[in-house]
Amino acid sequence: MTAGITVLDRLLEVSELFQSDMARAFDGTSLTTARVRVLWDLVAAGPSTQHALAERLEVSPRNITGLVDALESGGYVTRTPHPTDRRSIIVSLEASAEQMMRQMQADHAALSADLLGAVDPADREALVRGVDAIAGRLRELVAAHREASA
Amino acid sequence: MTAGITVLDRLLEVSELFQSDMARAFDGTSLTTARVRVLWDLVAAGPSTQHALAERLEVSPRNITGLVDALESGGYVTRTPHPTDRRSIIVSLEASAEQMMRQMQADHAALSADLLGAVDPADREALVRGVDAIAGRLRELVAAHREASA
DNA sequence: AGGTAACAATGTAGTACCATCACTATCATG
DNA sequence: CATGATAGTGATGGTACTACATTGTTACCT
Question: Residue B3 pLDDT > 60, yes or no?
């Protein structure tokens, strides 16, 4: 019972700590969590229209305009016209930003490994299974909520 | 290796899902995540000065003024003068808000139990130990980062 | 006591994120 | 070719946060 509370609380604590640490890393740059989310998506999906970004990140197209504005003036991305559809704009990562994201990905992996290293080896498999189970169950619950309120 | 990445990513996913679900629950009210954080703290700490709230929540005093403004006009808290220090203002939960927070706490516990219920019983203890270990290690790392940049 | 420094809260001003609505330019289809 | 959908953006507004300046109050120090 108390353990149940503790697990969820610890999970939330972990992500809070992680996010505040990320944010601190961006100090001095024009990067923010929301902007990096855009970069991250571009790494995964490749050059995209703003509309596609908006859909994948689940924010309004209008918001993407602002985020890309900031990233563009920071030199992280470029806007190029779509080859066939003149309404669309293709957002691409600048080479330096792609390099930076690769580094960030490596850091992320290293951190993951570090954190997992703090776990008793005998507990690791159960931990992974447990976290997966929790994530899966939570996805179910959220989906059910969305249904209900739709 | 891949598992290491997956664990951290899953943890982050869990807290994202959780937070978006929380936010949806506040639809239609004047409550938001930041404001509920204030209420939550008042439940745990009892009536407090705004200064104390700012310190515990690690935000600027000015920000607390705005949050308490919103909570006050929503009828969730009341401002009363400090008995001895006329500079200070004491923020207290309204009875209805205290009731609501008790409910929220119960829901939180129920959700925790539900999520833990999705985990194979044989994995639960290891999961709790593992998450604790990760949280502890992450606390260390963040503290070290703060030191380094201070 | 009298002056000064620290303190609590708030006004002002500014950044960032996010949303909706209205509008323009451009497809795409009947 | 007209009509309706689509892609992006301007305008506007709410929330969350910050730093700086200001006001009233307290506490300390000589």
Answer: no
A132 vs B13: CB contact, 8 Å cut-off? no
A14 contact residues in B (CB cutoff 8 A): 11, 15, 131, 134-135, 138
Which residues fall within 8 angstroms of residue A31, CB to CB, at 6 or more apart? A74, A76
Query: For the domain A2-94, what is the CATH code?
Result: 1.10.10.10
B123–A138 CB contact, under 8 Å: no
More confident residue, A67 or B18: A67
Give CA–CA dist B38/B33, Å, rounded: 9
B6–A contact, CB cutoff 8 A: yes
Residues 101-120 of B with CB under 8 A from A: 108-109, 111-120
Residue A88, C-beta contacts closer than 8 angstroms, at least 6 positions apart: A49, A50, A51, A81, A82
The footprint of strand C (CB < 7 Å) covers: A 30, 32-35, 58-60, 62-63, 66-67, 70, 84-87; B 49-52, 54, 61-62, 64-65, 68, 79, 82, 85, 87-89
Mean pLDDT of chain B: 93
- Would you state the pLDDT for residue A8? 87
